[in-house]
Amino acid sequence: MKQTIILIAFTIMSLFASAQSKDETKIAELTEKMRLAMISGNKTELENLASANLTYGHSTGKIQDKAAFVTALSTKASDFKAIELSEQSITVAGNTAIVRHILRADTNDGGIPGKANLGIVLVWEKEAGVWKLLARRAFKISY
After folding, report:
1. What is the DSSP letter of 111?
2. How far apart are CA 28 and CA 109, in angstroms?
3. Which of the listed residues 68, 73, 108, 138 has the most CB atoms within 10 Å of its CB?
4. CATH assignment of the domain containing 54
5. Residue 69 buriedness (CB in 10 A; 0-12 / 13-18 / 19+)
6. Cα-only R_g, the chain
7. In Å, how far are 86, 133, 139, 141, 142 from 46, measured between CA atoms?
């Protein structure tokens, strides 16, 4: 009997770990899709990835809603030429996922070349079974 209980507990824990790693994998894929959409400015992809309730915070303190975020990237007002992500971690808790990473980018906002070195926190939320970017906050780092 004791072995049966241990086996059942182990099976349940394995299923939970498997489900969580599935969500973590999905969030990593979506974060990569977002990176590519930010470079390309693909309006449809940006709209599909972002929640209607998106709060997108820049390192300058500027906050954008979904419409402003999509417009800035799709019109190239905010123009990323390259984005590299590193030191990424993903935590999933129920219908919420938190992604932390370092973003290094080459930009060309307003035709002026620049570089960005930022710490980023993304919050993804599962809405009707689909993960959407709910919030993003950036902060400047030096190195």
Report:
1. G
2. 27
3. 73
4. 3.10.450.50
5. buried
6. 18
7. 21, 10, 22, 26, 28
Q: What is the pLDDT of residue 142?
A: 83
Dist. CA 60–CA 73, nearest whole Å = 17
Choose among 141, 80, 125: nearest CA to 133. 125
Q: Is residue 107 part of a domain?
A: yes
Query: Edge-to-edge strands of the sheet including 130-140?
Result: 63-64, 50-57, 130-140, 114-127, 96-107, 80-93
Give the range of the structural domain holding residue 130, as residue numbers without chain letter.
22-140
Q: What is the pLDDT of residues 48-60, one digit of tens each?
A: 999 999 999 999 9
Within 10 angstroms of residue 132's Cβ, the number of other Cβ atoms is: 19
